[in-house]
Amino acid sequence: MLLVLFGARQWHRRPKDPSQGRLPKWMAAMDRLTPVKVFGFGLGLGLGLALALALAALNAKTAPLTIAAAASIGSAGLSVGQEITSPAIFVLIATLGLLAPLGVYMVGGERAKTTLGNWKDWAAQHNVAVMAVLFFVIGLKLLGDGIGILTS
Fold first, then answer.
1. What is the full DSSP assignment across 85-99?
2. DSSP state of 60
3. E strands, the chain, where?
């Protein structure tokens, strides 16, 4: 329920004019990283659930999603192989935000600067709205799951 309320709060606080949007501090800091540092950061954090824990520690907004994923995996009654594979898939999906720009940079050469610049501009303009919708949807999903458990 808190995620739904947080999402609604974020939506109402978003800039009315998307050109007024700003990048979050952590995303703006990415401009100061070299490709080697980004690759090392992504590779080092991508080893297991360390990424999910590190992201949750760096940005409290990701903690509910990480906790929900861990709870779902832990309570699903999976085999050992599935319990190892599921967090790995979660970490892969969680790192796509780092891996996609890195891949574009590595493959795109000079054209990548334009593409990544456009992505950055879009993210700055729509960050609050995207986060609001994300929290709202995840909150509704978790709320629905909780109601389903209580009624069964």
1. HHHHHHHHHHTHHHH
2. G
3. none
pTM of the model: 0.50
Candidates 113, 97, 104; CA nearest to 24 is 97
Between CA 80 and CA 33 the distance in angstroms is 38
In eight-state DSSP terms, residue 29 is G
Distance CA 32, CA 93 (A): 24
Q: Residue 99: is its pLDDT beyond 60?
A: yes
| Exposed/middle/buried for residue 70 (C-beta within 10 Å: 0-12, 13-18, 19+) | middle
Instruction: Please choose, from the candidates 52, 75, 76, 74, the residue with its C-alpha nearest in 3D space to the C-alpha of residue 65.
Output: 52
pLDDT at position 115: 92
pLDDT tens-digit readout, 115-144: 998 988 888 888 888 888 888 888 888 888
Q: Answer whether 83's CB lies under 8 Å from 73's CB.
A: yes
pLDDT at 44 exceeding the cut of 70: no
Residue 57 has pLDDT above 70, yes or no: no
Q: How many CB atoms lie within 10 A of CB 121?
A: 14
